[in-house]
Amino acid sequence: MGALSNWFCRPAVFGAAPQTAALGSSRNGFLRPLRKPIRWIFARFLEIGSTTELAREVAARGVRNRNGNRMDKKYIYRLLSNRAYIGEAVHKGLSYPGEHDAIIDRETWDRVHAILTESPRTRAANTRTETPALLKGLLYGPDGAAFSPTHTRKGDRLYRYYVSQSVLKHGAGSCPIGRVPAGEIEAAVIDQLRAVFRQPEMVAGTWKAARAQDGEITEADAREALQQFDPLWDELFPAEQARIVALLVERVDIGAEGLNVRLRINGLTGLAHEMLAGDVGEAA
Predict the structure, then answer these.
(1) How large is the greatest C-alpha to C-alpha distance in the chain, in angstroms?
(2) Is the pLDDT confidence value at 1 over 50?
(3) Which residues sit opposite 230 in a β-bridge?
(4) Can you tell me the distance from the alpha carbon of 211 to that of 14, in angstroms, rounded to the nearest whole number?
């Protein structure tokens, strides 16, 4: 996978009319070096179902388009929709059999486009059974021991929990809070984050921190960015939700009296920047 950054994954451009386009050996020669990266991108999309997450992974590997720019989710979408990769040429909105070899098989193409035709909300909902543990590495009990995610299955149902390391190492009774349902504790943390984003003092603090990096950001910009979090959250893919929680939350302490969520102020600033830039705008 490390070689991915050496690949320039740009869609092929076919400008000539399909009935006269000379897409022979020269075109095949052009597509040949794209075979591995394009197949990886298609295969990876089938695994995660999100152009947003795929664009993030591609960017993390340092892959750029032919102009040296980042491949955002819109570019990834166009790439996944490029019929040249299935051996076709397009002219005036109509596709025709090309004279070049396909580098993506029809079954893969159809599976990718079956996913693309679903709404972002539906795609996100379809991945809930693979929900990452939002509080992995962040949750601690009253004795200071970390909680680890675990799960059990009963029939077709999956039950997720966080279990104290004290219990795992020393047995039941070694910690006053040994196990908590994952869904309940995660929902409680998200509710606290939503409440924080509505607090004027938090908006002001985020704005001041963001302004230090970008003097053009106004307090209204910061408020608008943070207010997007609430309606956007449920449409995000689980992997993106987990990334945002890790960005925002430094530590969650659980005790008999409730939760204490410690936030990262620089994380709030980073999230506000992402919101303003449109990097956390859609689940797709």
Answers:
(1) 78
(2) no
(3) none
(4) 45
**10 Å Cβ neighbour count for 33?**
12
Q: What are phi and psi of 150, to 5 degrees?
A: -150, 175
Kindly state the tokens that stand for 234.
Answer: 């449920």
Domain count, the chain: 2
What number of residues does the chain have? 284
State whether 98 and 134 are in the same domain: no
Rounded Cα gap, residues 45 and 58, in angstroms:
11
Residues spanned by the domain of 55: 2-117
HSE (side-chain half, CA atoms, 13 Å) at 65: 15
Lowest mean pLDDT among 12-26, 104-118, 208-222: 12-26
Q: Write the DSSP string, 139-196.
A: EE-TTS-BEEEEEEEETTEEEEEEEEHHHHHH-TTSSSS-EEEHHHHHHHHHHHHHHH
User: What tens digit of pLDDT does each residue of 233-252 get?
Assistant: 777 777 778 888 888 899 99
Buried b or exposed e, range 134-145, using 16+ CB within 10 angstroms:
bbbebbbbeeeb
Task: Check: pTM over 0.85? Answer yes or no.
Answer: no
Give 67: exposed, middle or buried? Use CB within 10 Å, 0-12, 13-18, 19+: exposed
In the three-class reduction of DSSP (H, G, I as helix; E, B as strand; rest coil), residue 88 is classed as strand
Nearest to 77 by CA among 33, 115, 116: 116
Token representation of residue 208: 């001041």
For residues 144 and 260, state if they share a domain: yes
Taking the C-alpha atoms of residue 234 and residue 248, their distance in angstroms, rounded to an integer, is: 17
Residue 284 covered by a domain: no
Q: If we measure between CA atoms, which residue out of 266, 278, 133, 272 comes closest to residue 197? A: 272
Return the structure tokens found at 110.
């159809």
